[in-house]
Amino acid sequence: MYQITVAVDGMQCGMCEAHINDAIRRQFKVKKVKSSRRKKQTLIVSETDIPDEEITKVIADTGYEPGAVHREVK
Fold first, then answer.
1. pLDDT tens digits for the chain (74 residues)?
2. Model pLDDT, residue 48
3. Crossing angle between the packed helical segments 14-27 and 52-61, to the nearest 10 degrees
4. CA 20, 56, 25 angle in degrees (round to 5)?
């Protein structure tokens, strides 16, 4: 199981969080995705690894600014 945390700048409200979550779910097969405007991050849990470039592209395409990606294998 992979736990991927992506820094995201530009989220202002709950709809911003939902917009990113929906985009991630549409693009990748994930177990869980949760975005937090307060923490300025998106947490993705997936059975398979997802390349950083693909994740950051999906987030950037939604209009938000992706930053550093941190990955843990659980």
1. 999 999 999 999 999 999 999 999 999 999 999 999 999 999 999 999 999 999 999 999 999 999 999 999 98
2. 96
3. 130
4. 40
- CATH among 3.30.70.100, 3.30.420.270, 3.40.250.10, 3.40.109.10 for 2-73: 3.30.70.100
Do the beta carbons of residue 32 and residue 21 sit within 8 Å? no
- Using CB atoms within 10 A of its CB, is residue 68 exposed (0-12), middle (13-18) or buried (19+)? exposed
Yes or no: say if 53 and 7 are a contact pair by the CB < 8 Å rule.
no
